Amino acid sequence: MNIIKTDALVIGGGAAGMAAAVEIVERGYKTILIERDNNTGGVLNQCIHNGFGLHVFKTELTGPEYANLFQKQMNEKGVEIHSNVFVLNIDNENKSVITVTSKGMCEYRTKVLIMCTGARERPFGNLRIPGDRPAGIYTAGVAQKFVNLMNILPGNKAFVLGSGDIGLIMARRLTLEGMEVKGVAELMPFPGGLARNIVQCLDDFDIPLHLSTSVVNVKGKKRLESITLCEFDKETREPLKNSIRDVEVDTLILSVGLIPQNELIEELVDIDCVNRGAVVDNYGRTSKEWIFAAGNNVAVYDLVDFVTLEGKNAGQSAAEYISKGNLPEKYREVLRGENVGVITPVRVCTEGAPFTFFIRPKKSMDKARVIICDGLKVVTKIAVKPAEMIDITISSELLKEIRKRGIEKIKIDIEEVK
Amino acid sequence: MMDKKDIVCISCPIGCNLHIEFKGDEVIVTGNRCKRGENYAVNEIKNPLRVVTSNIRVKNGKYPLASVKTDGAISKNNIFDLIEALKCLSIEAPVRIGDVVIENFKDSGINIVVTREVDEEM
Question: How far is B64 from chain A (nearest CA, A)?
Answer without folding.
Answer: 7
